[in-house]
Structure formats: structure tokens, C-alpha cells
Amino acid sequence: MTLWVVGVNHRTAPIEVRERFFLSGEQRRAALEALMDEPGVREAVILSTCNRTEVYLNASPSESPGDAGARVLSTRSGQDPAEAEGYLYRKREREAVMHLFRVASGLDSMVLGEAEIQGQVSDAYRTGREEVPESVGKILHRLFQRALSAGSRVRTETALGEGAASVPSAAVHLAEKVFGSLEGRRTMVVGAGDMGALTVRCLADAGTESPWVTSRTLETARDVADDVGGRPVAYDRFWEHLDEVEILVTCTAADGVVIDADRLSRAVRGSSDPLVILDIAVPRDVEADAADIDDVFLYNVDDLQRVMESTEEARRREMPRAEDVVAEEVGEFWDWYRSREAVPLIRAFRSRAEEIRRGEIEDLLEEMDGLGEEEREKIRSATRVVVNRLLHSPTVGLREMATEGEGTERLDIARRLLGLDDEDLEEWIQRESDE
Amino acid sequence: MIDVLHVLALLAYGGAWGLQVRAFRAGDPGKQNPALFVTLAGVGLHLLALGVYAGQHQVLPLIGVGPASSSLALLLVVMTLTAAEMYDVRSVSLFLLPLSLFLMGEAVWVGVEPAVRQTAFRGPWFVAHVGTTFLGYAGLALASGAAVMYVLQFRSLKRKSFGKIFQFFPSLDSLDRVHRVGLGSGFASLTVGLVAGTAWTVTYGGGFDLGNPQVLFGLVTWSTFLAALLVRLPGVLGDRAAAKVTALAFVVTTSVFLYLRIAAGDSPFFL
Fold this sequence. Notes:
- The structure holds two protein chains of two kinds.
- By secondary structure, chain A is an alpha/beta fold.
- Helix content of chain A is about 55%, strand content about 10%.
- Among the domains of chain A are: about 1-155, 2-Layer Sandwich (Beta Polymerase, domain 2), CATH 3.30.460.30; about 165-310, NAD(P)-binding Rossmann-like Domain (Rossmann fold, 3-Layer(aba) Sandwich), CATH 3.40.50.720.
- In chain A, strands 7-6-5-8-9-10 form a six-stranded parallel beta sheet. A four-stranded antiparallel beta sheet of chain A has the order 2-3-1-4, with helices on both faces.
- Classes of the chains: A alpha/beta, B mainly alpha.
């Protein structure tokens, strides 16, 4: 069996190409079924996000799993296979394992260290297993579990995931620098922009109260409020609530200023709490002079971008530590994976030895008429002990050889030395898989 | 032995501060663990040093410049560590460790030895006076460190300067809480200490000497931090202005301390 990854990502393909490769829920299920119908494919998982679409395979080395993966990806995305080939990458065995572990850790992401990818990897594995149960067996199960565990270790043991990696997370980061915990903080969103809704959702994930939502029309405000779990407020009345608000997100499509400094100053005069304003509209919704009001912290899109840049540098410094963690986890998985290659050989070897022992001892016991059943059993037991003792060292040696470099070649030599042909092994492998 | 342990503790605190500065320069709050462990090692050595002192001299290390400075330094470090873990403000040690280093340096410089006239300063009243006064000083120092950091972080956030201070310093809310708790508990403790000291002086000392630098320093500190506490009352000043007043109170008391310390010369009884 060999492990493969075939796919496209933000490094190999521009967004318009990645969009064509993207597989939504139903497409992904169909592609998974198609993959499982390919000769030699034992297991498959498809990961499809806006920045990558990848197929992970555990397949027989005698077939061409890489070609099968590429064929299914290009067919399902409706592309000419020859054209698609120019964007695809293929990695096998340890390289494929390393690739997945780096992806799950956020090391291969467009925004270094982003946390969302770990959830996406987990979803890909989980939904694949639910939709096409036979697509995930022992190997890919272990591979994905270890990859997710590597991702968690990177996030807890290094600062790769710290700081802001997107506009909404930069907004949360800034609000946390003022308020510490955002638990129970009161928020309001003015406008119906997608980024505003996304920012409010991120703030809610950090613990803020359900937000007030206002927009030019109450109907739109209701729609957005439903979307983010907030409470709609009529546009001409949102000023009345401003002195209760601690975080204000503005994202209208207005051409001019929506919140002027003078009126804001009067509105928040009675409040004893700071007010963080996240103006993510272009053009800006809040008059720049509002930043001069005491206890008002005003940030626009450029400021949020600068927060992201400041934390990106810190995350980059963490890369070597994160790579070390990933290498360690890959090493552990690889040892387990390679040691499995020795299992059929060891079993065939022991089975052959047991066969010889049993044949010889039973022939001998047949010739020894005078022995009772108790004595016969003692002799059988003694020979079993002798064989087991003789096989102990070679068994350990075979396991170790499998995990070392060039293990496959060494196992081939061992197989020939032990006189075990491929049919014996194939038989054991088949039985293993069936179990 | 006592001196050697003090020097080792001093080196540990110095090393911890160096590690904190390094973490600050990297702008990475996640790199503060080594400083914490070295500080804890320093506290262990420091406790051992003062334990040996108490065992050897059969007296608490509260009298005389060396022992008193050492005890106050220990109290300050322990309080900093406690607040850091309770309010998630480890970086406050960036400001308070130098203060502990100064006190420890002074203790090592003059020598950690009992003052000549120990016998007069004994009894539970005296221990209560010195203990609560030291607790008060440590609390006010903690409040001052948090206040200075609050002012700096506030400025970063207002000026949209997302550099090392923004990244390394805790949130305004956390700093304000440490400021408030340090100021409240420090002032209360100092008040109790001064009352106990007055009672002890009137009862056993026969009178109240305003010319005594210790008395003068205690009163100046109490008055300036009373002002800092009053401006924190609801409706008087905002959080930032209150933090500035505390920082100013700290500058005033530190200046007064340095002046009185120099003026006191080699008096063995003033801190």
C-alpha cells in the first residue's frame, strides 16, 4: 500500500482555477465514490476549501493512484485533464504525510497559522467517513487523527496561531486589547455588509452578547439580525442605544459619514465604559475626529490590516518551532506506518515455522506409541517454546528494519532469505484487510 | 551563607528581568515562561536566605536597612507573581523586578545583618506595623507598575501604534483591575501599618517624631496615594487620568525616598 496526495492549492493555481476544482458537499461525495471505484484504491479522503482541493489516497502500489486521483479531480471539476495537470501536484508516502500534517497545522495556509484549516481537515475526514463509510480505513483514520493532533500541538506549543490572521480576527484582537475578555460585552453593527456580519459573528464566538443590528431598512436589519443571532433596531433609533454599546461595528455602503464626531461625543457622554469602533466600510462610516473623544478607540480597515501585518511577523518567527513539532509527529506516524509493512511478513514467517514444528512433532509423536497424552502435550509445549524463542530476535529485527530508511528494500531481502514468496504475503494482507 | 544566598537570589531576579526584556523585544507574551521559572527559583533562594537569617539571629528580618530591604523585595516579587497569575498580567514584572533588584542590591550592598539596637523593636505590635506597612508599599508599587503600563498601552491603542507595547502588554481592562486592587489593598494595608506604628511609638517610644525619615516617608506615601485613591472614586476622573495620578504618586514617593535615603546616610533604621 502507498499513501498519495494529489491536488491544487493557492501556490499552484490562481483563484479562478481553484474555484473550478472546488467540490461542494454532493460533488465531493460523488468524487469519493468514483475514487473508491478506481482499481487499487483502498481508502480516500477529499479536502476541498477555497484555497485547496486535495485527494488523499491509500492505494495499491501496483496501480497508479496518482493518476486516478488526478483523473477524478479533473473530471469532477469539468476540466480538460491535460490542462488540469498543469496545476496539480502529486506527493507520495512520507512527503504526502508531511504535506497533510503541515496543512492541518496551518503551515501551508495562505494566511500563515490560520485556525480554520484544522476544522476543515477534520470535516473532510469526518464527512467522508459518514457519507462513504468504506472510504476511510485503518491507515487514513490514523493519518488524519495524527495530523489533527499535530495541528493541535502546533497551536498549543507554539505561537503560530496567535494574533490576528484575518480582518474579523484582527477586530477581535483589538477589542480584547481594550476589554480583556469579551464575555458579555455589548455590541452593535450598523449596516448590512458581509464583512460586518462576519466580524460580529467572530465577536460573538469570543463571548459578546447578541448584537443590536441596524440598517437603512428595518427589513434588512431583521435579515442580518437573523443571520447573526442579533436584535434589529430601526435606523433612526440606533443613536439611543450607543451609550450602552461597548463595541460598534460599522459596514454601510453609504457614500459619506454616517456617524459624526460631535453627535457621537454627545451620545457616549453618559457612558463610563470605553467604546471600540471598528469601521470596516469603504468609504469610512465614522468621522476621523471621533478618535479624539476620550475613551473612544476608532479603527478602520487599514488599521486592522496593520494589526494583521504586525502579528504575521510574530507568526513567521514561530515557523521553525512549528516545523519541528510537525517533523516529530510525522516521524511517529511514519514509524507506525512502516512497522505495519513488516506485520504480514512476520506473520507469514511465524506461520511457516509453526507449520514445520507441528508437522515434525506430530510425525514423531505418532512413532512413539508408549507416551500418554500428558507427556505428548509437554513435548508439544516444549517445542513451541523453543520455536518462539528462536523467532523472537528475528521478529524484533524485522519490525525495526521496517521503520528504518530503505525499509521496503530490506524487507524484500528478508523475505527472500526466509523463503517467503509473495503469494503467502498477499494472502496475509488480504486476510488482514478483511479483518 | 546568608550573603551568598542573597547574591544568588539577586542574580536570579536579574536573569528573570533580562528574560522578560528579551520577550518584550520579541513582542511575544508567550515567551514569558522562562522568566517566571527563574523568578520562582529566585524566590526559593530568597526564602531560604531569610529563613537562615531568622534561624541564625533568632529575629525576623524586619529591622535594619539590609534585612528590611530584603524582606520588602521578597514581598514585592511574591505580590507581583501572585497578581500576574491571578489577572494574567505577567508583563507587569517588567516594571516591578527592577524595583526588587534595587532593594536587593541595597541589601547586598549594606549587608544583611541585624541592627545594633534590636531589642527595642520587638513584639507583635511592631511586627504588625512593619509587616502591614511593607505589604502596603508592595501593593502601591504593584498599582504603580500597572498604572504606568495602562498609560502606555492606552497611548498605543489611541495612536494605533501596533508595536511591541501593543503586543506584549495586557489589555487595558486587566491593567486597570490590577491598578485598582493594588491601590485599594496597598493603601488599606499601609493605613493599618501606620496606625499600628503610631500606637507602638506613642506607647513605647514616648512620642511622635516627625523629623524621623521613616515617619516622614510613611506620611508622604500615605498622602500621595490617598490622592490617587480619591481620584478613582466614581465620577471624579476616568481610568486613564487616575492611572496617570497613580504613576505621578509613584514618582513623588520614589523621589522622596531617594532624597531621604541619601539624607539618612548610614542610619541603620531607614529602608
